[in-house]
Design goal:
Length: 420
């Protein structure tokens, strides 16, 4: 039996506090959306039908209530992996094979990853085939779902083992400051994946075809030219094959950078609205938001790895979380498991920074196109994606990477003084 210590108490206190706050925030969201879901807010009265507003409220309530269930399940699984001894049992089982510490560590990490995938499968299936289907968004069959899942697992099997072997080797052989080497490897890997994903991985799941609408393509190319922006191409993705949600995004780095529109987005927006949405995305690049986010991730990951470098030398870290045999791989997995508990209260800072970037991108789009076009596009997206217009302000501050609809639309209205 493992003997727990003072760190066990600290961990349990932090877990209880973060889970309690998350429950409180979700209950606030439920109460707020229920209260304001019966009538369209005055600012949207002429643009959103009551039926659409009520659908968005019902969708938000369903997802938030299910979020309470998943939060409870995730908390129980975290306790089972740590204090319940599941990680320790997995580690001890692999050690029985007598492999070297490096290969044992790789086996523990990979097997734990796939066990976690399997444990998450029931909730993912329910959300996709119950909630998303109920509100008309899911268009996947079970066959397509498991085909995608198999592809994801195969990619993980190709990428994860060599990456883990390299990281564990560096943690063991690169000296006291191994975390600097691991950080450099991790950032390099992340940048390579940003470059490679649109060209080599995304096409395994979706079909990307060049935009064929000549008039729209010309508008987009004119917008890109005005802003000195180049890309590998403008593509339409068959998002409707899997979901009714619409979106648009930039992906990739350098020569692999491309513009992608979901076909569901193009079906619902006019040319001027599509141009305004794209101008918003260009705004992120013109304000160097991508670079800023990469820099932020780099700083946070470096600090986390330095902290891990210290924690893995502390016996109480392992004992307090249910692991009997200290090792580099158990330190790594324990750290990954518990860090969200201790960093949860940083969420509002990260969300604030993201919302600020969204406001800046909106302002840029309002300068490059018509603010009215972006406003109408956003309202269509809120309606078509069943996004609530009335989130709880505190819940939104913790979780939402985008500003609430009333604040975002009001900000754009100020960019268009001629609007009524």
């Amino acid at each position: 039996m493992n003997e727990f210590n003072e760190f066990t108490i600290i961990f349990l206190f932090a877990l209880a506090l973060s889970v309690s706050v998350q429950w409180w925030l979700k209950l606030r969201q439920i109460h707020h959306v229920q209260h304001y879901g019966t009538a369209v807010p005055q600012a949207f009265f002429e643009m959103i039908l009551l039926s659409d507003h009520q659908k968005a409220a019902a969708y938000t309530l369903a997802k938030t209530r299910f979020g309470l269930i998943t939060l409870t399940i995730e908390t129980i699984l975290l306790l089972i992996w740590t204090l319940g001894g599941l990680l320790n049992y997995l580690d001890q089982s692999w050690q029985l094979l007598g492999w070297s510490p490096l290969w044992t560590g790789m086996a523990v990490v990979v097997s734990m990853t796939f066990i976690s995938y399997l444990l998450d499968l029931p909730t993912n299936l329910y959300e996709t085939f119950r909630i998303e289907t109920k509100f008309g968004f899911n268009r996947m069959t079970l066959g397509l779902y498991f085909k995608d899942l198999l592809k994801s697992w195969l990619i993980t099997l190709l990428v994860l083992p060599p990456m883990i072997l390299l990281v564990l080797w560096l943690m063991t052989h690169a000296g006291a400051y191994w975390w600097l080497s691991v950080w450099a490897v991790w950032m390099t890997f992340s940048l390579v994946m940003l470059w490679a994903y649109p060209a080599f991985i995304a096409p395994l799941f979706n079909k990307f075809t060049p935009l064929e609408d000549v008039e729209l393509k010309q508008r987009i190319e004119d917008l890109l030219h005005r802003n000195g922006f180049s890309s590998q191409g403008i593509f339409v993705m068959d998002g409707s094959k899997r979901s009714g949600h619409g979106n648009a995004y930039f992906a990739g780095l350098g020569s692999q950078k491309r513009i992608v529109f979901f076909d569901t987005l193009l079906e619902g927006l006019t040319h001027r609205e599509v141009e305004a949405v794209l101008a918003h995305e260009i705004g992120h690049f013109k304000h160097r938001h991508v670079q800023k986010r990469i820099a932020m991730v780099a700083i946070i990951s470096l600090a986390n790895l330095a902290l891990l470098g210290w924690l893995m030398q502390q016996l109480w870290f392992y004992q307090g979380l249910g692991v009997s045999t200290p090792s580099t791989h158990t330190a790594l997995m324990l750290f990954i498991l518990i860090m969200p508990v201790f960093t949860f209260f940083l969420n509002p800072i990260m969300a604030w920074a993201s919302r600020r970037h969204e406001f800046e991108a909106d302002a840029f789009a309002a300068q490059q196109t018509e603010p009215e076009a972006l406003i109408s596009a956003l309202i269509r997206l809120y309606r078509d994606n069943a996004s609530t217009l009335t989130p709880d302000p505190l819940y939104s501050a913790f979780y939402d990477s985008h500003p609430p609809a009333p604040l975002r639309i009001a900000h754009l209205v100020r960019q268009a003084p001629d609007m009524p």
